[in-house]
Amino acid sequence: MCGIVGYIGHREAVPDILKGLKALEYRGYDSAGLAVLSHEEGKVKCVRSVGRVSALESKLRENKDLSGTIGIAHTRWATHGAPTLKNTHPHFDRKREIFVVHNGIIENYREIREILEREGHKFTSETDTEVVVHLMRSFLDDGHTHKEAFLKTLSMIKGAYGLALMIRSDPETIYVARHSSPLVIGKGEGENFIASDPSALVHKTGNVIYLKDGEVAEVGREDIRITDLSDVPAEHEVVELERDLKQVQKGKFEHFMLKEINEGADVIRSACRGRLRVKDKAVNFGGLRDVRNELLKIKRIIIVSCGTSYYAGLAGKYIFEEIAGIPTEVEQASEFRYRKRAFIPQTAVLAISQSGETADTLAAVRVAKDSGILTLGLVNVVGSTIARETDAGVYNHAGPEISVASTKAYLSQITILTLMSCYLSERRDQEVLDLMEAIDSLPKKIEEVLSRSKDLEVLADKYHKYDNFFYIGRKYGYPTALEGALKLKEISYIHAEGYSAGEMKHGPIALVDGNFPTLAICLNNGVFEKMRSNIEEIKARKGPVLVLSNEGEGGMNDLADDVFHIPRVPEPLEPILSMVPLQLFAYYIGVKRGVDVDRPRNLAKSVTVE
Ligand code: AGP
């Protein structure tokens, strides 16, 4: 939920650190700060500011003498303590010798703080992170070496951390450590980089080391020494980054969100590339090859995920059960991880995560692994923790998704879930073959819908002033309703509720009046008539209704206030095609309401805290 960056080398640290911070702003943007160690004066300059990295940049322009070739920085999503200057990282001790940036949550910080305050330490912030500074201070004052003090500090703290620490008297080393919060080290020529994720350093190096949980690194200009918490050297490998991280630009689009919505067709193609062979009636996943035999015996699938990925999982449930005939549960990872589970044999847990770093989903994977259950990942970010910790998995290859609101990843997730259902099923009857054909031709239908984006902008103009919204659907329209409502909530701050349409009469319809519009997913499928009744019930109570329907569905025009048509597809693909207009609708409403749609308030792209 926060982003940390570090540089140690032979060049000025600030430019690369700032560039890295900007790349990580999607992880949190409540406040930002950096600390640079200047050799000449042998002191550390620290500049911090509330708000976006741009505010820090403005402050840096007033601090011309910020020079040095080693530095650390942080962009914050507030967990403990309001987004104020005193809570902004880096945190440092009263002697201004120890500087720390942290991503994660130290769960036992209160107890540690009480002990340290009793020993006379003066805290200046409300953050959990500050205990690291004072523990280091305490151990250094006891005569321990820098590394000993760092290891002792880490042995005291419980919870999640990605940490980078600099010591004024040690201009040759940045100390880093990782537990549950991601941290990568980028290897350069005579210089090295640290970041919460590779997007912050890919502009300088494609060679990274993913630090593992419980590992500590001393990062110098040349050497990188990685050990465990007992200072025993740890094996590590340098991996080559996917080069497409370099192409993360908005291009002709005003926002990353609009760019990524417009990549919807391409991500379907990427999801299918090398996997779907319609002529051979085959689907193949290289990433599942090693567990193929085990998968063919699977009797139950449990999907664990959060947010938009959870709604993709909900659609996946319907698809797995309809196409592969495998009983499938979908669980919010944040709940799954706490429930006493009774797993039945031949169960597979499938974790869906765009970032591959969501703490709750990672925790759910670990619960499943500890129970001896086969774990699979459906992940977009290559090399991410969930991708590495699951037994096998499939990458979306959707390219970096920068906007906080997940859009193209959702389309890719459901596409791959549909392909997986064909992969797991022996069925090659006409329904399945038609489905494969339909997946193959889906990108063109998405492009057709995208070509009518302006119609969604017109509808957004009409509906953007409402403060409440219902989204309702049945069967495959139900996850669509939930995800459509989440998009509107996230991007416009309108109170949008997704509901299964059948539930409306059991209470929610009490809210309907002329100021409470409903978006109804009413496609020409087995639940069309039931959805039509829902619309009539809402109209009878003067509720404005915007309907998502299929072309050629005449009758809707005389019933609804507004209709947006999409091409027909087999029902399992409806959640994909239906979402494109809903994403655009939310986007245009957010823009019309003046929201920074790529960085909505209170949110972050990757929720690496629990
Ligand atoms: C989606 O628009 C949200 N930003 C959020 O719900 C997100 O889907 C959720 O945090 C899960 O993220 P993940 O897919 O990276 O695990």
Care to describe what's here?
- The protein is of the alpha/beta class.
- It has three domains: 3-243, Aminohydrolase, N-terminal nucleophile (Ntn) domain (Glutamine Phosphoribosylpyrophosphate, subunit 1, domain 1); 245-450, Rossmann fold, CATH 3.40.50.10490; 452-597, 3-Layer(aba) Sandwich (Rossmann fold).
- Helices cover 35% and strands 23% of the residues.
- It is built from 19 helices and 26 strands.
- The strands form five sheets. The chain has an eight-stranded antiparallel β-sheet, covered by helices on one side.
- A hairpin with a 6-residue loop joins β7 (159-167) and β8 (174-179).
- The protein is globular, with a radius of gyration of 26 Å.
- The chain starts with a strand and ends in an 18-residue tail after the last helix.
- The model has no long low-confidence stretch (mean pLDDT 93).
- The structure holds 2-deoxy-2-amino glucitol-6-phosphate.
- Residues 306-309, 353-355, 358, 361, 404-406, 490, 606-607 line the site of 2-deoxy-2-amino glucitol-6-phosphate (AGP).
What's the arrangement of secondary structure elements?
Elements: E1 3-8, H1 13-24, E2 31-38, E3 43-50, H2 53-62, E4 70-76, E5 91-92, E6 98-106, H3 109-118, H4 130-141, H5 146-156, E7 159-167, E8 174-179, E9 184-187, E10 192-195, E11 207-210, E12 215-219, E13 224-228, E14 239-240, H6 256-261, H7 264-272, E15 276-277, E16 282-283, H8 292-296, E17 300-305, H9 307-324, E18 328-332, H10 333-336, E19 347-353, H11 359-370, E20 374-379, H12 385-389, E21 392-395, H13 408-424, H14 430-450, H15 453-463, E22 468-473, H16 477-492, E23 495-500, E24 518-521, H17 528-539, E25 545-550, H18 556-559, E26 562-566, H19 574-592
Parallel strand pairs: 17-18, 17-19, 19-20, 20-21, 22-23, 22-24, 24-25, 25-26
Antiparallel strand pairs: 1-4, 1-10, 2-3, 2-4, 5-6, 6-7, 7-8, 8-12, 9-10, 9-11, 11-14, 12-13, 15-16
The structure holds 2-deoxy-2-amino glucitol-6-phosphate (AGP).
2-deoxy-2-amino glucitol-6-phosphate binds at residues 306-309, 353-355, 358, 361, 404-406, 490, 606-607.
